[in-house]
Structures are given as structure tokens and as C-alpha cells.
Amino acid sequence: xxxxxxxxxxxxxxxxxxxxxxxxxxxxxxxxxxxxxxxxxxxxxxxxxxxxxxxxxxxxxxxxxxxxxxxxxxxxxxxxxxxxxxxxxxxxxxxxxxxxxxxxxxxxxxxxxxxxxxxxxxxxxxxxxxxxxxxxxxxxxxxxxxxxxxxxxxxxxxxxxxxxxxxxxxxxxxxxxxxxxxxxxxxxxxxxxxxxxxxxxxxxxx
Length: 206
What we know:
Blueprint: H1 15-36, H2 44-51, H3 55-61, H4 65-84, H5 94-122, H6 127-147, H7 149-154, H8 157-170, H9 173-182, H10 187-205
Helix pairs in contact: 1-2, 1-4, 2-3, 4-5, 5-6, 5-10, 8-10
């Protein structure tokens, strides 16, 4: 039997698999669209209508809405990683590092706001979504500790934990949401407030 050459073309998906892939993508995009509009729990009927598919196709593609939401969360995480997770070098001088970090973090927080609002509704009823939110939060906390590691080390051990907590709180999503929506600040003003809180915490301790 002839050995298949590496240069041989990759076989195309058959029509059924390709239609299934398009249907799944349309369903996921429909749910993501609802979440961005502030609708965290669209019904299967709403999803099907927006995806221009039958309700039956939704459940043919996904066992239940829980699995669909997890797929959407995974898709969002991929998008978030691609757009916003850019490391800030801890070797930069503090003013440059603070500016770069706050600009990157505020852009990410603005992007995730509709999804975080959705998880507030969904997480109490879904251990899988709650676990995904915790993992994302831990990653965000670790980033703060890595970017400002040298400043954290300079603080006396008895106050180090509180100082770290202040830094994390200053650039957390709940505080960003407070600045943007409860206090109605523009993105620029909210970003300036975040930078000021971090700088003030450092001035007090260092």
C-alpha cells in the first residue's frame, strides 16, 4: 500500500459535519450576543430564533443549556486571552509599569463586564461556572502579585498581606463596576481612579 505523503491535501469535512459545525458556532454566537446585551439566560427558543435554527437543533448540538453555557464561557475565555492577556514586565520602572498595567487591566475589565454580570446570575446554580469564575479571579490576582512583586517585597511582613489585598482590590472587577456604573465615571476617569488608588497604597507603605 502506498504511504500517504505529508503533502497530500487534508480531507475536507463532509457536508453533515460542516453543517453541524456551523450550527454550533451560530448557537454559541447567539448566546454571546445575548450576554453582551445584558441577557444572561436566554431561552432555547430565543437562542434558536437568533441563530436562525430550529429549537430542536439547539438540543441536538448541546445536551442541555448548561453545556451550551460552558461552551460559550470557553469561547469567551479564548477571546479574552487573545485580546487582553499581555504580560507587563515587572522590570519596567514603576511609573511605566503602573501605566501599562492599569491600561491593560481596565480594558480587560471593561470587556468582561457583561460576562461577569451574567456569571453573577448563573454561578449560584452552576458549580462548573462558579469554578471557572474562581479560576479567572485567581489568575487576575496572581498577575497583580507578579507585576508588583518588588513593591510587595519592600513592605514589612506584618503589613504585606493587607498591602497586597489593597492592590488586588483596587484593580478588581467589582471596584471597576462600581466606578463605571454606580459612580457613572467614563472609562478614562475610572482608569485614572484605579491608578490613583494603587499609587496611594504604595505611597503610604513604601
